[in-house]
Design goal:
Helix content: 55-70%
Shape: extended
Largest sheet: none
Distance between the termini: 164 Å
Structural class: mainly alpha
């Protein structure tokens, strides 16, 4: 075989191999393009068919790269594989490795600039937004990639819009519009520039930008149609309903893309509903939801239908139902989270059963406060939020009216009881009829005046024990409608006893029935008094806390949302007059100055400063220190109470030893569940029963444990005994306290038998038998002197 034939054969083999590579690359590109053309599913992800085609494209590219990536088409295959991995949606880290391999392995490839941009997108997908922006910002500063700068700037602007940083997005878009007017990215940047204004709710400027695009000749038709949609959307947002309806009708006639046409029809339905053509608008929404089922546009239709039912019809039930359909229709819709928030808010607006401020005040307040928050956001109804707080304020008037009613009822019952008590007293003092004949009654004796019933009391039956002369006993009939306990039933006349009418004895149960009635009324009065005390407590809470807070919230709404300065100033003047020292009044003044409000109680601040001033009395004025601290043991502020108890306990333990008083104050500290470091330090010298540091034995080791005989080395720094504590806790900082070790421990060696454990005392000779006897007496016995016999008057006189 000649050399010519061999060379010709090699050439044929190379061409065949090249054709095979080209054919594989061709198939890979076809698979990739087919997957790209498929629409995303309702979750915003590629469909199963698209994922399968991306996978086939990746395999084809892998075949080309199987020779180690040294072929002429290796960089093309690697770039296509990296993009397929990126768009597949579940292989972000593999896509990152592929793009980095292309950038590092093929630095001269024409795909390197786009690989940087794709790499930035991948880094954002794997939750590294800072690294993503760093890659793009370095890219737009590199003059080597100047032709691709507009594309990178457009991606940067898109990132900022997604992060809702519209001002920074506007900066990147303006760079494209001003610096790269002849690029293909210029048109898209102009469109995003107008859309960016719409996202900021600057509808007028957005409208102007889209009208510019619509007038530009070089803009392709598809982009002009999208600009026309935003023109109609801005007109609708500005309240120009007829113009918006006219613009969107023209758009519907020209639009052929299904998703864009569906969005235009939703906007047309909104225009119909806003213009009062409710039936036509509802029919259009129904057609969209049925024609474009499970799409983002049908989800938008359900959202706006829910808004229509609430804002225009006041139908909360239907509104909630349609708003909940948004998430189920297309969960990836940008309106899905907003719809969920509004549905939750509207559920809170439904009437609540058994909502009563008297029986459950906190439930009543939580309901109305939450309503107000939902009215502000997401429902954007600040006036309704203002009314919710006003409802809470008005509840105080209802409670006060109820309390006044109870007071009147108690007064009426008390008057009835007084009247009945008079009747009972008159019956109990009437003489026995059997003794009347034995008493010599003078002729001129006047008859006893008849008992006149109290007009304020409840009507009673004839309460006198004797029947009236003109009405025979046998003709008296019991009155209907009277309870047996409140009516005196007369006895029937007996013809065999003619003198029975003269005696007329009191029925045996008359007195008991009146006593029972008195007790029943007293029980009612006690119940009403208990209820009135509870109402008084609730009203006091309204006056001290609830109403000032509601005023503060209303001022915030008027200042930030309604922008009504006149009403705000009037309400603030009311707060200053009624609650001048309230922390909410101070916070409201900060809101009006556009400052961040802080709920600071001025009375607490004043008390805290005064407490710190009192601590300065030591060591020059110890009596003033103790007197002033005693006032804070009953302070309404728990932290100041704790500090006062601790400081007094320390004072009576070491500065002016008095074990009984020290124990009283230190036990208050230890019994406090929130004693914190104060309790920790207290337990180092008082365990709740005895003082741990008191040991008056001769020559004590200063830092020895009083519960053992082990002697510890003396530390050089007395601060090691107690840790440093804030402000008044660290009393070692007192300039008047003697820190010399002997002086310190001499002051701690207090010879007070009320606080010193007998086992720790050093025995000494008593001065007298009486003193020896007193040593065995317990503290409790010493504190209560024995009763002395009474001194007789004769002994005093004899002396």
């Amino acid at each position: 075989m000649s050399k010519t034939k061999i060379a010709f054969g090699l050439i044929i083999l190379v061409l065949v191999a090249a054709c095979g590579i080209d054919n594989t690359m061709y198939n890979a590109r076809n698979y990739f393009k087919s997957a790209q053309d498929r629409p995303l599913n309702n979750m915003g992800r590629p469909t199963a068919q698209a994922v399968d085609e991306y996978t086939k494209a990746i395999k084809k590219c892998g075949m080309i790269l199987s020779d180690g990536g040294k072929g002429p088409r290796a960089h093309d295959a690697l770039f296509l594989m990296a993009r397929a991995l990126y768009y597949k949606g579940n292989s972000a880290f593999q896509a990152k490795d592929a793009f980095e391999s292309l950038i590092n392995g093929y630095p001269n490839s024409s795909h390197v600039p786009e690989a940087h941009i794709y790499l930035a997108k991948v880094m954002r997908d794997i939750n590294q937004p800072a690294e993503s922006e760093r890659i793009l910002e370095q890219f737009v500063r590199n003059p080597k990639f100047i032709k691709h700068h507009p594309q990178a700037l457009l991606v940067l602007a898109d990132f900022e819009i997604r992060d809702k940083d519209y001002h920074r997005a506007q900066f990147w878009l303006e760079r494209i519009i001003l610096d790269y007017p002849n690029t293909k990215e210029f048109k898209e940047a102009s469109f995003l520039f107008g859309k960016n204004y719409y996202m900021q709710k600057d509808y007028q400027r957005s409208l102007e930008e889209f009208e510019k695009i619509n007038r530009t000749r070089k803009i392709e038709k598809s982009l002009k149609l999208e600009a026309q949609y935003y023109i109609a959307l801005n007109e609708f947002s500005l309240g120009r309903i007829p113009q918006a309806q006219k613009t969107v009708k023209s758009l519907i006639r020209n639009e052929i893309r299904p998703d864009k046409l569906a969005a235009a029809r939703v906007l047309y339905a909104r225009c119909l509903l806003a213009s009062g053509e409710h039936d036509a608008g509802l029919a259009e929404i129904d057609a969209v939801t049925k024609t474009y089922l499970r799409t983002e546009q049908s989800a938008d239709a359900f959202y706006h239908l829910g808004e229509y039912y609430y804002y225009q019809k006041g139908d909360i039930t239907n509104a909630v139902s349609n708003l909940n359909r948004v998430r189920t229709e297309f969960s990836n819709s940008i309106l899905s989270p907003i719809a969920t928030q509004k549905a939750t808010a509207l559920n809170q607006l439904l009437p609540k059963a058994n909502l009563n401020s008297e029986t459950n005040l906190q439930q009543f307040l939580d309901h109305h406060y939450l309503r107000a928050e939902y009215f502000i956001k997401p429902l954007a109804l600040p006036d309704s939020a203002f009314s919710s707080y006003q409802t809470v304020i008005d509840e105080r008037l209802k409670l006060a009216s109820l309390r006044d009613t109870l007071l009147l009822e108690i007064s009426y019952l008390q008057a009835s009881m007084d009247s009945l008590a008079i009747q009972i007293d008159s019956l109990s003092t009437e003489p026995d009829p059997e003794q009347i004949d034995k008493i010599d009654v003078p002729v001129d004796t006047e008859p006893a005046p008849e008992l006149i019933p109290n007009e304020d009391s409840e009507p009673e039956a004839d309460v006198s024990d004797e029947p009236k002369p003109e009405e025979p006993q046998d003709e008296i009939e019991p009155q209907e409608g009277k309870e047996p306990d409140s009516v005196d039933k007369p006895q029937e006349s007996d013809p065999d006893k003619p003198d029975q009418k003269e005696e007329a004895p009191t029925p045996p149960d008359t007195h008991d029935s009146r006593a029972q009635q008195m007790q029943a009324w007293q029980d009612q009065i006690n119940a009403k008094n208990t209820r009135m005390e509870a109402l008084t407590s609730l009203i006091a809470k309204f006056d001290s806390e609830i109403i000032p807070f509601c005023y503060f919230a209303q001022i915030s709404i008027l200042h930030n949302d309604i922008k009504d300065t006149s009403r705000r100033d009037v309400l603030f003047a009311t707060m200053q007059q009624s609650y001048p020292r309230s922390k909410y009044t101070i916070a409201a003044s900060m809101v009006m100055q556009d400052k961040t409000p802080e709920l600071i109680d001025p009375d607490y601040n004043a008390a805290r400063l005064d407490f710190d001033r009192i601590l300065g009395y030591w060591p020059d004025q110890p009596d003033s220190l103790v007197t002033a601290l005693q006032t804070y043991t009953e302070s309404p502020y728990s932290d100041l109470q704790l500090r006062a108890q601790y400081r007094l306990g320390w004072h009576y333990s070491f500065e002016a030893p008095d074990s009984l008083k020290a124990r009283m104050h230190l036990k208050e500290v230890l019994d406090n569940a929130q004693s914190g470091e104060y309790g920790t330090v207290t337990r180092r010298f008082f365990d709740g029963v005895k003082f741990l540091l008191r040991d008056p034995a001769p020559a004590p080791t200063p830092y020895a444990d009083s519960l053992s005989t082990t002697e510890l080395p003396e530390p050089e720094d007395p601060f090691l005994l107690f840790p440093a504590l804030p402000d008044s806790l660290n009393l070692f900082t007192d300039p008047g306290f003697d820190f010399s070790i002997p002086a310190l421990w001499d002051s701690l060696a207090i010879e007070d038998s009320l606080a010193i454990d007998d086992s720790l005392m050093v025995e000494r000779e008593p001065e007298s038998p009486r003193e020896e006897e007193n040593k065995t007496i317990q503290p409790e016995e010493q504190s209560t002197p024995e009763p002395q016999p009474a001194i007789k008057e004769e002994e005093i006189l004899s002396e």
